[in-house]
Write a structure and sequence with these properties.
heterodimer, A: 264 residues, alpha+beta, Lipocalin, nine-stranded mixed β-barrel, two-stranded antiparallel sheet, 11 strands, globular, B: 142 residues, OB fold (Dihydrolipoamide Acetyltransferase, E2P), five-stranded mixed barrel, 13% helix
């Protein structure tokens, strides 16, 4: 910037006024992707409730699972029940059936919101980002953007999420979850749609009401919710699957590789 | 705020639910014996601060004086960290006594429940559902 182009000090108040006037807080309608007026949900959170330990000691709510069984259509229900029963029997015998976790694969959606560990929410312009500490899972919720059709979305673990603030509630629509990414083993098609209503019910208590719909596999919408408490002083830790010694053997059962001289 | 009142019962129930049924961390802990514990005293060959699990590797002496190796799995280091552990909690070369839930397969490995360091300090591992692992009278691995 040349000295001639630099604003004089006298013009500073005017420039400041213009900047303030143009800021999202002053004119929310001028910037559709802002979060002016939205509740502040930025920060670390931890799920509470069935299976969650709470108290910042590390939640681990894989079981018991807080959602009811998925209301599957009969054609899918029989197979799902058989798989659940087989898993229970294998666990009782000390030979648990291998899961995605054994292979160090993340939960994806909506399992990520069950949150085995604390997670962090970041509110930035046009986007809400959720980072789950376990497996360093990241999902991005695009604000005030149109949703695509399922056929236009490449399947992924977290899908395509678009959201909007309806008053104090963040309403999120997610499609495009890979068919092998299954919460509670629920089979689904590419028509699966996850709707979330995320809101503060107390200054430090957040609720995510989730409804899963799939015209192919579900008889009716599958509704459940998670409750989280704010962790004001918590900083998320790193989680990298650096040395995964678990594996699934040829029988589909979980095993553990030993250490020792041969590994040194 | 219409939702304000309903949050209290939710939280009351949530915080009351400190009991935990079968819990899994990175994987199911069902591969470990929930009915008995084993005590292993040995020299630490490594204390591995890693995910999805930490590992404590020990060499111990058998009754005949032979050296054998035993692998002890810990929870994720995130859980250890939140429980106050850190990467320097146990040092290589240190002599420790570990109480473990042994692998059901009979292989020389187990899940750490508690470890006594050379200093005498006792560290409890933050195993989810730790109370589901039955502590039995000391049985020392020889």
């Amino acid at each position: 910037m040349t000295p001639a182009a630099a604003p004089s000090l006298a013009a500073l108040p005017v420039l400041l006024f213009l900047w303030v006037s143009a800021s999202p807080a002053a004119a929310p309608q001028a910037a559709p992707n802002n979060q002016a007026g939205a509740p502040d949900i930025t920060g670390a959170w931890e799920r509470v409730g069935a299976g969650a330990l709470g108290g910042g000691q590390g939640t681990d709510p894989r079981n018991p699972r807080p959602a009811p069984p998925p209301p599957l259509k009969p054609a899918f229900l029989t197979e799902w029940q058989a798989a659940q029963q087989a898993a229970r029997e294998a666990t009782a015998k000390g030979q648990p059936v291998g899961s995605n976790w054994v292979n160090c694969l993340p939960d994806g959606m909506p399992g990520m919101m069950q949150g085995p560990f604390p997670f962090e929410i970041l509110q930035t312009k046009g986007q809400v980002t959720i980072i789950q500490e376990s497996f360093t899972q990241v999902r991005r919720i695009l604000l005030d953007r149109p949703q695509l059709s399922p056929d236009e979305v490449d399947p992924s673990f977290y899908g395509r999420s678009v959201g909007r603030w309806e008053g104090n509630t963040l309403v999120v629509d997610t499609i495009g979850i890979k068919e092998h990414v299954r919460y509670q083993g629920m089979p689904h098609s590419n028509q699966m749609r996850i709707t979330e209503r995320i809101r503060l019910v107390e200054p430090n208590v957040l609720v995510d009401e989730i409804v899963v719909q799939d015209p192919v596999t579900l008889d009716k919408p599958w509704a459940f919710s998670f409750t989280y408490r704010r962790l004001p002083d918590y900083m998320l830790l790193e989680y990298i699957c650096e040395d995964n010694r678990e594996y699934i053997d040829e029988k589909g059962l979980q095993r553990m590789r030993l250490g020792g001289p041969e590994r040194r | 705020m219409p939702h304000r009142r309903s949050a209290h019962p939710i939280l009351a129930v949530a915080f009351a639910c400190t009991w935990v049924l079968t819990l899994a961390a990175h994987h199911s802990f069902a591969v470990f014996d929930h009915t008995q514990t084993l005590t292993v005293t040995g020299t630490v060959t490594s204390f591995q601060w890693s995910n999805p699990h930490g590992f404590l590797e020990l060499d111990y002496q058998t009754a005949t004086g032979a050296t054998r190796h035993y692998t002890i799995e810990l929870t994720s280091i995130n859980m250890l960290s939140r429980a106050g552990w850190h990467s320097r909690s146990i040092k290589a070369g240190e002599s420790v006594t570990a109480v473990v839930a042994p692998l059901l397969s009979g292989e020389p490995g187990g899940l750490l429940l508690q470890v006594t360091l050379a200093s005498g300090q006792v560290l409890t591992a933050p195993v989810p559902g730790a109370d589901t692992f039955k502590r039995t009278p000391e049985k020392v691995l020889k």
